[in-house]
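S.,

Sequence below, as promised.
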Amino acid sequence: MREIQQSVCFLVLCCLLLQQNSLALAGKDIPPAVTCGSIVKLKNEKTGHVLHSIDVNYGTGSGQQAVIGSTASDSADSMWIVRSDSADCRQGTPIKQNQLIRLQHVRTAKWLHSHLFQSPLSGQQEISCFGSAKQSDTGDVWSVEWDDGKKTAWLRDMPVRLKHKDTGRFLSNHGKTYPRPIQGHSEVFGSSKKGKEQLFRAGEGVYFAERET
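The prediction came back faster than expected:
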């Protein structure tokens, strides 16, 4: 049953992406804001790798599903649904500065998660995928931050930082890569620093027209 649900979700995603690609080819504007319900790829400013997860668990630390940086440009494993931490954020509502969100991995329905386990390669804070559509906790909650005070909402292709609510660490990616079975993929980790390794841009994805508030 889970495999069927994942296949249906993937087909729906493909249809939505094709629809937005058609809009772009027709010269029509794709909505610029990242909103509740947006489905996005997040590219790291330093490495150019996208936030990615697959059905491989860490061999150390929590043993949960691994989150990694990937150079693949055509994988649904790099797609994340933007969910608000509050139940009243309807699809199309723009994400504001410091808003609390959860990122749900499209293919596995697990949540971008962090905790006090050490990351495998650099010994910093581990980032994993955890839970399910019906299971989530405070370790899945992140706030969205950016430096441009003139921007009132998270916009596509704008560099932002994702700060973990429980630990205060920022989602990060650097050039250290794994051996097999995820050879060539880079480490994603939590850090207290604020540099290019901590900046991500929402790029390819599915964006919805903004809902008036």
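The longest helix spans residues 2-25.

Coffee later?
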